[in-house]
Amino acid sequence: MGILEVSNVNKRFGGLQALGDVNLDIAQGTVHAIIGPNGAGKSTLLNVLIGKLVPDTGTVMFDGKSVLGRKPYEINQMGISRVFQTPEIFGDLTVFENMLIPCFAKRDGTFRLHALESIASEKGIIEKAEQMLSDVAMIDKRGMTASSLSRGDKRRLEMAMCLVQEPKLLLLDEPTAGMARADTNNTIELLNHIHESRDITMVIIEHDMHVVFSLAKRITVLAQGSPLVEDTPENIKGHPKVKEAYLGE
Ligand code: ADP
Ligand code: MG
Q1: Could you tell me the pTM of the whole model?
Q2: Which key words are in the record (predicted)?
């Protein structure tokens, strides 16, 4: 049994079938990529996984429990964190203060700015936040205002903000979108390092094949709302159906 099991999920927007009979079984500890052309239903699927959208039919089980009908913060507390396409950090706060926010959100299901001081006095949380900043090579920048960080560092911070919650499952929606090659390669290295050093399952939605083939152990190709094939990267590369649907060949 996988850590995340999606069974017979359907979602319509009016007359449009955005997701049709989606079945997915994500193994514990893997890096699983979901790829597919524009409009294939990738973001819709992700939104179902994080509780932002409720499917018309089907079930989504995480760690043996249903996520359907739960609020996004409840799903977060169950152990699912996500990295957004655009970094969601607090520009006026320092790097270190930003790290405290997700700790608080995970514990209390909400975040209030004035609580920063109280949480910052909790030794365990400070140590965890510092360790995580070291892991993403950001500890030297802990006192910097987040808005002054480079784009790549903002992304690192955001990743660290997800990881400090110690999620069991990390969802990444195009983590390298809009990045230059060097930053993309840094992110690949960072994610590989995170995956190897922690027991985190990752689901990555990604357009960039270089990223997909550098990270994924398993790949599901989504086309017109339904999984077309699921296989290892080696097999996906040469798959005729994939070439046809995804690469337009
Ligand atoms: P992808 O992320 O793979 O590009 P999406 O999941 O964003 O695809 O979209 C799948 C299909 O559903 C597209 O045809 C899109 O236009 C449609 N769609 C997505 N969200 C909505 C919505 N909120 N209302 C209506 N149609 C939507
Ligand atoms: Mg999308």
Answers
A1: 0.87
A2: ATP-binding, Nucleotide-binding, Transport
